[in-house]
Structures are given as C-alpha cells and as structure tokens.
Amino acid sequence: MNYFEDSKDTCFVGMEFREGYVAVLSKVRFFLGDLPKEKYVDKTIFQGSQDGTTYKDIFTFDENIHPGWNYQEFNTSATQPKYRFYRFYAKSAQAC
User: Would you place residue 82 in the very low, low, confident or very high pLDDT band (cuts 50, 70, 90)?
Assistant: First the structure.
C-alpha cells in the first residue's frame, strides 16, 4: 500500500496466519516516508492476537520514529512475539 487516508476514529491494517500456526517475530520493519510523525506518536500501536478478537499491545510508536525505515527488534526468544494475528492499530483518525 503506497497511500491511504483514513477519516474514522480508529483503523487498522494487519495480517493473519493459517489456523494452527503462529508467526514468531525477531524484527518489525515499517516505512513512514516523509509523513509527519506527530500523526503517529503515541497513537499507532503494533499488536498481536491468538484469536483475532483480543489483541495485546507489543509496541507503540514513540518519539524515536522518523522518515524512512523504522525497526523494532526482539533479540531473545523470551521477548519475541508469537501470535497468529498481527496488526498496526491506530486509536485516532489519520494515524494509520
């Protein structure tokens, strides 16, 4: 997706893996381009879920995000998320 503008109060974009499977993440990489980070800081959350209904926050975009590629790394097996569903969730308009 190259561009999307949302006008709802909340929005999300995510992925789902086959039933009976989970994805174990070592790194999440996302691209912001030249979008103003004020739209996303403390508003956009990366989440995981086993059932696609109840989500757990994994990390929230903070002041460290910047134009271009951003990374969130999970260095040990104890910290690596293991979920069937993942999504970027925005809790305010235009934060997707």
Answer: very high
